[in-house]
Amino acid sequence: MNSTILVASANTTVPKYDPATTNIVRGTHQQLVAFLVLNIWPSHLGIPVLLAIIFFSKKIQRHATFINLCITFIIAGFSSSLLAYAGKTTGPEPSPVLCLLQASLLYGYPPMTSVAAFALVLQMFLVIRASYYGKELLERNHVVRLWVMLIAPYIAFFVGLLSTAVIGAAYPTEVSRNRRFFYCSVRSQPLTNSITICAAMFLFATIFVEGWLAVILYKRWMTLTSKGINLKESLDLSMPLRVLAYGAYSTVALSLSLLSIKAPQSPAPDLIIATAPTFLMLIFGTQKSASSSSRIATTSRCLATATEASKSTLPPPPAPTSNDATVSRIVDDISGLTLLQASDLVAQLKEKPKEKTIFNVKLESFDAGAKPKIIREVKALVPNLTLIDAKKFVESLPKVLKENLPKEDAEKLQKTFEALGAVVKLD
């Protein structure tokens, strides 16, 4: 609550200026409602629905870094809504514990989201760069790196959270809601400087990686154009362009987040930052081709194909089309494979066993009335057998009649005994 000191004068009271609690964000009630809506609907409904579709669909796949980015926005949305849950968005100051809790959560938000956005852009860059040089990026060969990319955002989040909690607990008078209007904050120059520097480092790294990725895509684009190759068929730029667009937007939004911490006079930065989850939904949730495969892996395959195609001076002939429904379904299934699944498929096809050409002919059983004929045929097949030996042979089934016969001879012998009423198996 704004602290004031009453100064005795001629029927007037003069409020004392307290920088820790004085409202420096000049927001309106309509802007407060917009801020809450922009934080609540994607974190409580939109992004959870998107994640549910990804998890339960057999066709839609997304990389773990994308899932991670979605989770960070859910955390941010719930953190921004704490005062709404408690009914403390307006009126008297919320309790010190609630206010410090929200401030701690939200001060961990800029570094967490900046690291998560950097991880997504970096993953796309690594896949595209590997494919550009004709290599294959297998996740199983980079497990440690993947886990670092997934855990790093939460390490940054907890560092920001704990730092804010410690400082806020040490200086409770510096914690208030009125100062930032939309949510609770802690007035601490060293804290805000540290958060600013941490998030800015990853923002600049994201910009650098995006620029490098754009250069790679541009080089491949120009190479294919010079070779006269159909770009739409050779390169799937949908996912890279979406990642680049979202990375650029996140950079701008998070830059405003840093600005709002350092110089928070205008409500515009907080409102623009609040649109980031909605922008995420618009960028990735409306992707028409999302239902076919993992777009990062698909882009990698397309770029790798384009790399091989660009080595030829002539464009490849158009692929033959088929009206067969089974063939079309197989083509759709194969095109929906991830890079790792496609690699496993190729390996299994290479390991397909060769057609068997040598067989053993085994006598399994025979009709009771066919026993004499079977005995005679066995004796004829093995001339050195006596009639008694042939009878014992037939009575101790199953028995191998001949071993290591070519397929044609084995089938011929099988038909001979089957004609007599016997059951013969080829092994």
TrEMBL record:
The chain crosses the membrane at residues 32-54, 66-86, 106-126, 146-171, 191-218. GO terms for molecular function: mRNA binding; structural constituent of ribosome. Residues 327-352 form the Large ribosomal subunit protein bL12 oligomerization domain. GO terms for cellular component: mitochondrial large ribosomal subunit. Residues 359-426 form the Large ribosomal subunit protein bL12 C-terminal domain. Pfam families: Ribosomal_L12 (PF00542), Ribosomal_L12_N (PF16320). One of its GO terms (biological process) is translation. Keywords: Membrane, Ribonucleoprotein, Ribosomal protein, Transmembrane, Transmembrane helix. Gene3D superfamilies: 3.30.1390.10. Belongs to the bacterial ribosomal protein bL12 family. This is Ribosomal protein L7/L12 C-terminal domain-containing protein.
